[in-house]
């Protein structure tokens, strides 16, 4: 698929200081017929192989999950992003996100699938030698072998580089002997290949190794008893004098931590995108139940309180979908540009994702929290039945909770994304200083009374986003000025700023998508999406103002605080909307269809 129109390739994080136009962004309605066919085939696999066996999966029936993974491999689903020369389909990054989106509704299978195709396969694709790629990737793409990723340890979670697992070179120099313990390892119970992170001797940083199960010296605890995703294999893994050939070191010595960080960027954006299918499924089930459930002689879907919930499900789902595929295409465009410049394809893919690491963290945070909201309200729509294991909401509720934890907790990701923005600014990669200074001057200057041109659809909403970006620059700039190098210690303030950044990116993505839809099929055909967009922006403004007000009160006082609060008020000033009517319009469309608002692939 061709890259979307670009006036100049956007950099990761640059959305904060650059006005975007709808012609520049990709929207999911633009997926090609080939991509839609792949999506439809994936949905068919979920409907025929996963959904009917969900109870068997959750009971951890011996052999079932690996069998399902093998079937997925036979359909090509495990090799979406693996090049054809290694047995994959060689499709784009955004296509891989689309498949993750659809698999999302499958609960435990989604975890097994993501662990295998993401953190279990991509380190080899991006960092492996030609011999390693040729040996392992075809087996992983076909499903003949299953993979897992062994990073976390009892005392090394978010601080992954503090792991204690050790590797020591044998006297003959032919093998490394690995000893140590890993925990929370997805797919461990049936994996054939373990990507293991260990420190050689007294190294400061981790080194990665490709460890085949048949190398020996690998033992495991029983399956973990988990709150959710009960059907995914999760075990502690022990390496006891595990003998690994020296040629199975992945990349270079002490490059393991870098591998872990970069692969997690990919995992983050795919996890964030990988909630969309689940959100849509829960929304459809909730609408269906609300239409069938009668109270006081009418369907509960006729009640305003229920319509509120259904509409908010749609709003949050549409928003994260808009942001996810916008970022995914930015990554694809960057990869293509780097390849055109002569960069090796594997390196280009890695650098493409690394460039948009800020957006990856945003998508992970927002997506996981959107899913949590949707499933929570799904339980509420079902009422008492929502608390019963006989209805689908209990499983959805349990399975969703992990998404805010793995691939880095949302708290860690919030601090990371702000830290990355500041670091890029300090390196001169993002010119934040000039826009921040301009905002400072505007804050103490006389407000403009010019009337902007709001004749284009959602132009007024885009003007609001422009002002919200000024609010972020004001707060972040002042915080950086006051705290300087100690900024990373101010975690509460960092998380306030992160919330502001997340909401701006998602709100802008939502507006741009709707503007592009209107340009293609007209305002009338997209009236419900316009309602969604206005409602989401209203939420974003409220969240940004609350987060900004809280942040500035943490590091300013007196007259300076008053000026900052006045700035927040100025930059978050919006015209009120009739949110009740907007929600009812959105909900009524869902109620009439008896399902989620739309389908992208049939």
Task: Give the topology, please.
Elements (H helix, E strand, L loop, with lengths): L32 H18 L3 H5 L5 H11 L18 H11 L4 H12 L2 H6 L2 H13 L4 E4 L15 E4 L5 E12 L6 E8 L6 E6 L5 E3 L13 E12 L3 E2 L5 H18 L2 H17 L1 E2 L2 E2 L4 H37 L4 H11 L1 H26 L10 H8 L9 H18 L5 H12 L14 H25 L7 H31 L5 H29 L2 H14 L7 H15 L9
Parallel strand pairs: 1-4, 2-4
Antiparallel strand pairs: 2-3, 3-7, 4-5, 5-8, 6-7, 9-10
Helix pairs in contact: 1-4, 4-8, 4-10, 8-12, 9-10, 9-12, 10-11, 10-12, 10-17, 10-18, 10-20, 12-13, 12-14, 12-17, 14-17, 15-16, 16-17, 16-18, 16-19, 17-18, 18-19, 18-20
Fraction of residues in H or I helices:
55-70%
What string, H for helix and E for strand, traces the elements in order?
HHHHHHHEEEEEEEEHHEEHHHHHHHHHHH
Structural class: alpha+beta
Largest sheet: 8 strands, mixed
Helical segment count: 20
Distance between the termini: 19 Å
The number of distinct β-strands equals: 10
Portion in beta strands = 5-15%
Rg over alpha carbons: 24 Å
Mean pLDDT across residues: 94
* Contiguous runs where pLDDT drops below 50 for at least 5 residues: none
Shape: globular
Q: What does this entry look like structurally?
A:
This protein is an alpha+beta fold and 602 residues long. Helices cover 56% and strands 9% of the residues. The chain contains 20 helices and ten strands. The chain has helices at residues 33-50, 54-58, 64-74, 93-103, 108-119, 122-127, 130-142, 256-273, 276-292, 304-340, 345-355, 357-382, 393-400, 410-427, 433-444, 459-483, 491-521, 527-555, 558-571, 579-593, and strands at 147-150, 166-169, 175-186, 193-200, 207-212, 218-220, 234-245, 249-250, 294-295, 298-299. Strands 1, 2, 3, 4, 5, 6, 7 and 8 form an eight-stranded mixed sheet that branches. The two termini are 19 Å apart.
């Amino acid at each position: 698929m061709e890259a979307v129109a670009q006036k100049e390739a956007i950099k990761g994080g640059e959305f904060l200081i650059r006005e975007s136009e709808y012609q520049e962004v990709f929207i999911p309605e633009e997926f090609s017929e080939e991509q839609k066919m792949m999506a439809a085939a994936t949905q068919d696999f979920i409907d025929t192989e996963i959904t009917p066996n969900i109870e068997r999966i959750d009971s951890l029936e011996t052999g079932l999950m690996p069998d399902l993974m093998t079937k997925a491999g036979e359909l090509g689903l495990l090799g979406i992003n693996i090049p054809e020369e290694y047995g994959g389909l060689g499709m784009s990054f955004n296509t891989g996100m689309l498949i993750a989106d659809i698999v999302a509704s499958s609960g435990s299978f989604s975890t097994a699938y993501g662990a295998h195709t993401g953190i279990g396969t991509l380190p080899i694709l991006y960092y492996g030698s030609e011999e390693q790629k040729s040996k392992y990737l075809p087996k992983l793409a076909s499903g003949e072998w299953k993979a897992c990723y062994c990073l976390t340890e009892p005392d090394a979670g978010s601080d992954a580089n503090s792991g204690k697992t050790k590797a020591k070179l044998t006297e003959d120099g032919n093998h490394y002997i690995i000893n140590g313990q890993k925990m929370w390892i997805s797919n461990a119970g049936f994996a054939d290949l373990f990507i293991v992170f260990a420190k050689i001797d007294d190294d400061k940083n981790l080194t990665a190794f490709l460890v085949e199960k048949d190398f020996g010296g690998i033992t495991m605890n029983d399956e973990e008893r988990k709150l959710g995703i009960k059907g995914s294999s999760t075990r502690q893994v022990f390496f006891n004098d595990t003998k690994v050939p020296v040629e199975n070191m992945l990349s270079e010595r002490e490059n393991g931590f870098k591998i872990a960080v970069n692969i997690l960027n990919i995992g983050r954006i795919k996890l964030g995108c990988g909630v969309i299918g689940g959100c849509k499924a829960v929304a459809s089930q909730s609408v269906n139940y609300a239409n069938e459930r009668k109270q006081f002689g009418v369907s509960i879907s006729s009640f305003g309180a229920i319509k509120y919930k259904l509409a908010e499900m749609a709003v949050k789902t549409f928003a994260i979908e808009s942001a996810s595929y916008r970022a995914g295409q930015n990554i694809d465009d960057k990869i293509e540009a780097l390849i055109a410049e002569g960069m090796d394809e594997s390196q280009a893919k890695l650098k493409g994702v690394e460039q948009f690491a800020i957006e990856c963290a945003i998508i992970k945070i927002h997506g996981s929290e959107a899913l949590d909201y949707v499933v929570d309200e799904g339980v509420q729509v079902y009422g008492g039945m929502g608390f019963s294991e006989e209805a689908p909401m209990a499983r959805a509720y349990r399975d969703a909770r992990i998404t805010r934890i793995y691939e880095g907790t949302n708290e860690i990701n919030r601090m990371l994304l702000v830290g990355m923005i500041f670091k890029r600014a300090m390196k001169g990669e993002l010119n934040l200083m000039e826009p921040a200074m301009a905002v400072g001057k505007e804050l103490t200057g006389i407000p403009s009374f010019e009337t902007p041109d709001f004749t284009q659809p959602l132009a007024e909403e885009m003007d609001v986003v422009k002002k919200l970006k000024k609010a972020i620059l004001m707060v972040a700039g002042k915080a950086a000025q006051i705290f300087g190098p100690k900024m990373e210690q101010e975690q509460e303030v960092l998380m306030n700023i992160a919330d502001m950044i997340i909401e701006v990116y998602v709100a802008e993505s939502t507006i741009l998508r709707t503007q592009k839809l209107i340009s293609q099929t007209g305002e009338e055909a997209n009236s419900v999406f316009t309602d969604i967009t206005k409602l989401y922006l209203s939420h974003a403004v409220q969240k940004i103002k609350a987060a900004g007000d809280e942040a500035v009160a943490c590091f300013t006082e007196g007259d300076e605080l008053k000026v900052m609060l006045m700035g927040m008020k100025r930059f978050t000033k919006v015209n009120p909307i009739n949110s009740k009517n907007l929600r009812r319009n959105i909900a009524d469309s869902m109620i009439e269809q008896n399902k989620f608002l739309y389908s992208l692939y049939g």
